[in-house]
Structure formats: structure tokens, C-alpha cells
Amino acid sequence: MSNAKKTDLRIQLTRKLIWNALLDLMEDREFESLTVKEICDQAMVHRTTFYKHFEDKYQLLSYGLDEIRELLDQQNSKDRFFHPIQTLESIGHLRLFKIIWKSEKKNNFFSGILQNKAEDALKKELHSIETLMGKSVVPIDVITAFISGAVSSLVVYWLENHEKINAKELDDYMNLMINKEVLFSGKIQP
Amino acid sequence: MSNAKKTDLRIQLTRKLIWNALLDLMEDREFESLTVKEICDQAMVHRTTFYKHFEDKYQLLSYGLDEIRELLDQQNSKDRFFHPIQTLESIGHLRLFKIIWKSEKKNNFFSGILQNKAEDALKKELHSIETLMGKSVVPIDVITAFISGAVSSLVVYWLENHEKINAKELDDYMNLMINKEVLFSGKIQP
Asked: What is the CATH number of domain A3-107?
């Protein structure tokens, strides 16, 4: 290996080390509350080393997220579209996603409460439909996750665009996009 | 009106007044950073009045959210299921939802970046499908909101349950639940 390549590898390793220290700390603490000193202590590197590689903790964070984005960009686009979860699994970094999701869940205090409420109502609804129609092909928990996510996202879209699209149009589109035939053997209609 | 009823009405009005003051403040500030004193100043009520009705700002918040939940509970469950956005519109409180969504968007720093990235990729994908297949029944922005929300939610479900359900199963379920025939005239298949 050439000296230049060795140096390059050492740079990569140091950055990874610091990035992993950040993830370690984020298991229990919020990103905002962390200091560069704490990240250095966790990584067992000197502060001057940190500043050789990153301006601050925000730059460290975008370094880490850029890595993930690059990995996602490299995936086949058809795969990404039809197999989003397998694609996510294949690039690894499950730990990062868990940490991100955990830290944001804490912050999503309001919509968390409302979403739980909506999910409970939806689950109840789906169970009573199942009693009438027989077991669904897709487990009810999965239908609930799918529909509640899709609807929350459409609600946000509506909040941003209600001047140009009305609630009824969006509900109609939503009903078109959900494959009810598969979910309930085509027996239930709005 | 009886004296008891008048008192009851006055209590309701005071609570609404304090709740609206909280919403006013949350237009620009984060909930966590607000003090009871600031809420009282905004509502132009004395602190003792506040504490006659609420223990602290958290109890004020759950009072407000409970009101919304009650309104949602009163809606016809079939309506809620098939017309979620019209249901939300019919109960009013658009302002509250906007504030909640705005305040959480600020917090969702990480997944915000990743989600934007995913939405951009999805939109590009859908545009190239449209070029091949002709215009979709549902506008691409709406499809993007729907699918990205559904997939994000399934990713969270997967992060929580990957011991009992694998990525391939979830992707397969997702593909079943999306009505591709409507979206792309049934011409595209995974």
C-alpha cells in the first residue's frame, strides 16, 4: 500500500471512530445536548484530532448522514422503489436508524399522542372488519402501520397545500391508492 | 341560565383563553421553552387563575389534546377510516395541527434530511414511470406523500419488530397494499 493510501485509510478510520462515538452517546442522550469534548472522550481522541476532521458536531453529523445517502444512491432504483425495507437492510446501519428514530420519537410528543390514538382506532376498526370478512392477507399490525403512515403524510401534505387541493380530493386519492381488494378480499367498499 | 351553568361556562371560557394563548406562543416558540408566566401574560390572566385550572403547562397541553381526541372520537368510525382528511377538516383546529406539525418538523432534523432525500428519489422515479406509461390518475406529489409516509411508518415498524418479521415479508406486504393498477394503469409490476 502506498503512503498516500495509508494516510487516506487512517483518515477514514479516525472519522468512523468519531462517528461511532457520537452514535454511542446518542443511545442515551440527545444530539443537541452533546459537546465536542464528550464526543472526543467517548472516541478516546484528542480535541485537536476532532477539529482536524470536523468543524463542529453538526459537520460530524452531516458526514455520517452523507455516508448513508451515498449508500442509498448506489442502490438500484427499482429495488429502492419496490423493496424499500430490504434496501435499507442491505446497506446496514440498522443501529443508526434505530437511534435516529428513538431520539425523534421523544421529540414527537404531540403527534405521537395523536398518532397512537389514531392507530388504536384504526386497529379496532380493522379487527371488526376481520370479524365480518375473515382474516386479512396482511397482518393487521402491518396494515395499521402502512395506513397510519400514509395518512399522516397526506395530512401534512394537506396542511401545506390546502389552498390548491381540498380534503375530499385527497381522501378520494387515498382510497384509490390503497389496495382494498387485497386487504379485505374485495368485500368492503367506502 | 342557572348560576351553576354560568360558572361552568366561565370555566370553559377561561380554559379556552389560556389554551389559545399557548397556541399563539407556539407559533414562534417551542413548547419546552415556554413558562407558565409567559402563557399567563399572553392570555392576560393572573398566575393564580392559571393554577386554579391547570397544575402546569403539561396539564394544559393534555387538556387541549383531549379536546381534539374527544372530537375525533365523536366522528363516525367509517368516515374516519375512509375519509380521514375530511374528518380532520370537519373538526376544525387546523391551526393547532399546523403548529404541531411545524414544531415537530424542526425537531425531526435527521429523518427530515433522509425523508427529503427519499421523496426526491421517489418523485424522480414516478416521473420516469409517467413518461413511459402516461399520466397517472393521482398527482405525483400525492403519490409521493402517500408512499413515503407509508414506507417510513413500515420502516419504524420493522425497526421495532425485526425479530418477528423480516424485510422481505414487509416489502411484499407493502407491494400488496399499494394499488398499482390505479397508479400506473396496471402496466408496471415489480
From this structure: 1.10.357.10
Q: Give contacts of B176 with chain A, Cβ < 8 Å.
A: 137-138, 179, 182
A36 pLDDT tier (thresholds 50, 70, 90): very high
Instruction: Give the per-residue pLDDT at B189.
Output: 41
Query: Domain segments of chain B: what residues?
Result: 3-107, 109-184
pLDDT in tens, A146-175: 988 888 888 888 888 888 888 889 999 988
Higher pLDDT, B155 or A14: A14
Angle at A100 between CA A97 and CA A102, to 5 degrees: 105
Cα–Cα distances (Å) from A53 to A2, A49, A65, A71, in that order, read 22, 7, 16, 21
Q: Nearest CB to B100: which of A110, A153, A178?
A: A110
Whether the CB of A152 is below 8 Å from some CB of chain B: the reply is: yes
Task: Decide if B100 contacts B109 (C-beta within 8 A).
Answer: no
Q: Which residues of B touch A118 (CB under 8 A)?
A: 72, 84
Interface test with A, best of B68, B108, B146, B184 (most A CBs within 10 A): B146
A58 and B CB contact within 8 Å: no
Q: How many CA atoms lie less than 13 Å away from B60 in the CB half-sphere?
A: 27
Beta-carbon contacts of residue B77 (< 8 Å; ≥ 6 apart):
A121, A125
